[in-house]
């Protein structure tokens, strides 16, 4: 009995020692070289799962490339990943967890605007530099007219994107009337709907229907009947691929004859799977096209395809740029100090990414062009570039 107790006690203290060692040197049997911890917040489940997967893939490629070259500023990069399920509360918990439990010095994420806005507020109050590749809503980097100094992004904003699509509808499609359907509970959807409406009216067009739905709605027939009666030339759908797919399908069933147009949220191979041919001929604004002939794009597409057997979407491509921007800032700061990394990020200029060469403006938003894509034969076809 005594012997048994002693063994248990010995076992327990051995366990405690192992826990202690693991705590100090995560994932390593011997003490590691210097490391810097960075976190990734991305939706790996929920309604925009394809977004999260692309972002995770691209983040991993960028980090592996840097580690293969010996890390940054003499430090290996250790990564910690959390799935936010595209839910704002989960996203904010994820940021808290990464910063307070894992001690990350910087974060890449999150992916959509509604989850990135709470993450950016936390990053700002805890002073952890954070960069999103993809969240386009203006509130990501600014709150009540004040810049969140610790927050950055690698994409243009919805003020630009919404205007681009209004201009495209008026100028290229010669639309004189437009209808808008948006999700009133989603900052991204609501924000871009307003920008599009105001820009379209400013350009001399008329908005004949402007209607909202809720986040869990699946039946849009009543709204679409109203839209059809308003006889718009185009219907603007600022939402993500799953919702857009459903609405497009029902619009076709209602016999809506106009063109469907939208923003970057359409970018997923799932869109055509959900909508079928109801989305055929539709147009949306995006951040890059794999058909771009610049060598940076060609190299990236080749590398990504070899590894993941698919063409990288804009989300993965922006996440690759965002991660590389952060790594470049750590290199420039030559330090794991969050304040120094922040300053280096703010002063990045002429950064050469896959999505273009760009410089941060005073809000931490890069100045860069958009591309317009058309869905043709069920595939994304590059149409034109629009400069700011
Ligand atoms: N811009 C979207 C948002 O802010 C996310 C997104 C980016 C979706 C790029 C598709 C492509 O929520």
List the keywords.
12 helices; alpha/beta; globular; binds phenylalanine; 388 residues; single chain; 16 strands; 20% strand
Q: Brief overview, please?
A:
The chain is α/β, with parallel strands linked by helices and 388 residues long.
Topology of helices and strands:
Blueprint: H1 2-24, E1 35-42, H2 49-68, E2 76-83, H3 88-100, E3 106-108, H4 113-126, E4 130-132, E5 142-143, E6 146-147, E7 151-153, H5 158-172, E8 177-183, H6 187-202, E9 206-213, H7 221-229, E10 234-236, H8 241-254, E11 259-262, H9 270-275, E12 283-286, H10 295-308, H11 314-333, H12 338-346, E13 351-353, E14 356-358, E15 370-376, E16 379-386
Parallel strand pairs: 1-2, 1-3, 3-4, 4-7, 8-9, 8-10, 10-11, 11-12
Antiparallel strand pairs: 5-6, 12-15, 13-14, 15-16
Helix pairs in contact: 2-11, 3-4, 5-6, 7-8, 11-12
Structure, described:
The protein is built from 12 helices and 16 strands. It has helices spanning 2-24, 49-68, 88-100, 113-126, 158-172, 187-202, 221-229, 241-254, 270-275, 295-308, 314-333, 338-346, and strands at residues 35-42, 76-83, 106-108, 130-132, 142-143, 146-147, 151-153, 177-183, 206-213, 234-236, 259-262, 283-286, 351-353, 356-358, 370-376, 379-386. The strands form 4 sheets. Strands 9-8-10-11-12-15-16 form a 7-stranded mixed beta sheet, with helices on both faces. Strands 2-1-3-4-7 form a 5-stranded parallel beta sheet, sandwiched between helices. Strand 13 (351-353) and strand 14 form a beta hairpin. Helix 11 (314-333) crosses helix 12 (338-346). The longest helix is centred in the first third of the chain and has 23 residues, at 2-24. The protein starts with a helix and ends with a strand. Bound molecules: phenylalanine.
